[in-house]
Amino acid sequence: MRVRLLISSARITLALAILGVMLLGDPPIIVRGVLNPQQGQALLSPPLAPADPSSLSLAGDCTPTPVSSPLYPPATSAPTWITAPEIHLDAPVVEITWLPVETNGVEVTEWQVPDSAAGFLKGTAYPGTPGNTVLAGHHNMGSEVFRYLIDLQIGDEITLFVDKTPYRYRVTQKEIVREQGASDEQRRENARWIGPTNDERLTLITCWPYTGNSHRLIVVARPAP
Asked: Which domain holds residue 10?
């Protein structure tokens, strides 16, 4: 995933650039979701060339282990709710898609990240299936659904619900990566966090710190009994 800030007269946007990851057929290189116009600084750099999807791996975890038998029945639809008791997270989840727009002559797609819910990136894995289930949320606007994501610790429990069916995970990784002012190489590394995986996992993404948006906070959790 490549995440970056864009600014216009009306707003700053959170860019989620998918490098060679086919989520909705064939999205353009740059993907973004609306952020608080009062936060962050502007950063607009040229889009990167798509990476070979077969070469994508996750930073800090280059050899994911395939899951042969899921702990939970495979879901056939997107998650509808998320809880994390340790940070008092209890919020709806809505499936989000993108709309094609043009910014400064560059074709981009705008992810419709909600103000009052976490957004499930359409095209990522459903809970209970091998792959990467990716949710994005705001940390300093709207209901600030992911404001306290930074406080999650290794071993903390996260539960996704698909209607009434729970899918439990435990946090296994927490990373903060620089996006504002990062090199193209670093952004390519950042992009790997939402790439497809062989193992079943949940990835939560928001900006950091609370007073700005220069970095990305990434929390990875894996299925737990």
From this structure: 2-48+72-223
